[in-house]
Amino acid sequence: MEDRSHKVLLALVMLFLFAVIVLQYVCPGTECQLLRLRALSPTAAADPYRAEDETPARFAPRFNFSAGDLLRRVDFNIKGDDLIVFLHIQKTGGTTFGRHLVRNIQLEQPCECRAGQKKCTCHRPGKRETWLFSRFSTGWSCGLHADWTELTNCVPSVVDSKKEVRLRPSR
């Protein structure tokens, strides 16, 4: 009988350890709201900027965008002269977002990316012109991590260098 109780106890301990391991994969760290007891209290989600010791917040969120700015819709004409210029700001997820632009964007003619190549071809339908100016489509044409000023001066000359002056759109 004692041998059977040891086996049952061992099975329960193994089941508990298995559950803990699975839970760590499903819900790692402190991000899991299911395990946090504070998540059950009504004041937990009230103010994310309030300190635990109720001291005044050192960070006051300020948004400089109106609701109209955030909800604004911009039409992009891939067949015309419209151009998307991606300004990469370091350490903000720009590499991931840039890859997303060339690989996953849903347009009439998305970029063509081949395995093993760093750059993708982003041509307009029926033309050999690019509609996307980013490191993943044109490379570092304006320099490594070009800022707004460098891109403003560089992009028109790089994109329109092959066109005649009278055919260049005003950007």
Task: Assign an overall shape.
Answer: elongated
* Alpha-carbon Rg, integer: 27 Å
> Structural class, from secondary structure content?
mainly alpha
SSE order, as H and E?
Answer: HHEHEH
Low-confidence stretches: none
Q: What gap, in angstroms, lies between the N and C termini?
A: 86 Å
pLDDT averaged residue by residue: 79
Structure summary, number of beta strands: 2
- If strands are numbered along the chain, what order do they take across the biggest sheet? 1-2
Strand content: under 5%
Q: What portion of residues is helical?
A: 25-40%
Number of helices: 4
Largest sheet: 2 strands, parallel
Function: 6-O-sulfation enzyme which catalyzes the transfer of sulfate from 3'-phosphoadenosine 5'-phosphosulfate (PAPS) to position 6 of the N-sulfoglucosamine residue (GlcNS) of heparan sulfate.
Pfam families: Sulfotransfer_2 (PF03567)
Enzyme class: transferase
Signal peptide: 1-24
Description:
The chain is mostly helical and 171 residues long. The chain has a domain at 77-167. The chain has four helices and two strands. It has a two-stranded parallel sheet with strand order 1-2. β1 (84-85), α3 (94-104) and β2 form a beta-alpha-beta unit.
